[in-house]
Amino acid sequence: MAELTVYEKRTCTTCRRLAALLEERDVDFARVDFHVEPLSADELRDLVRRADVPARDLLRTREPVYAQLRLADRELGDEEAIGLMAAHPELLQRPVVVRGDRAVLARPIERVLELLDAPAA
Q: Which one of 12, 32, 53, 76 is the catalytic residue?
């Protein structure tokens, strides 16, 4: 079983760099392209819980839909942000890496080391 799960977009340069880093370190990981297999609101809620951050912190602000929905102009609670990411997968920041009961947004990719250096929960 994979030690890590990486939620990514396969064409993303940062995601490819993270995969190369993990492969160099011989870390077993599963890949989930959430643009091909969108995450449900429950799965996103679980990612937010594991990352222990407000859901808004996982929003990708440079996506056109972010501007179209005028998300910068208003406060978003966790449930609304999660619902928006479920409806618009491109709004989820990437890559998000999960190990045990923890998750990190691997931007920069070296943030994954926080999970590798800590005991699995």
A: 12
